[in-house]
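Hey,
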Amino acid sequence: MPDVPRLYRIIIQVTDLDRGAEFYGKLLATTGRRIPGARHYFDCGEVILALIQPSGETARPTPDYLYFAVDDLGPVHARARELGALSRDTVHGASAGEIVSRPWAERSFYAADPFGNLLCFVDGRTVFTGR
């Protein structure tokens, strides 16, 4: 079998590492861990979500959504609402910030962190992988 690469870490930039770690800790319901070199890691299944605070440069938000599969959307949605992170946009005519069954059959909601990084949380039973 070919040695197919595995994605193991995604890095997102934040302007304040402590604030980012607090936000994601509450949203993801886990504390993560501080890593030397202005990083904070959160284990998200087999992939690490790494927050970094760039030194001497402006933090750049991700250009598109990061998708998280969860077992229960309700608690994550409630935490995102409490954090003021729910999207106010629409997706295919439906509220992006509400839990909705999307046209591709995923139940999901959209959010953003305080640094402009875009997030989507999907009911793990409805994840669409194109297969």
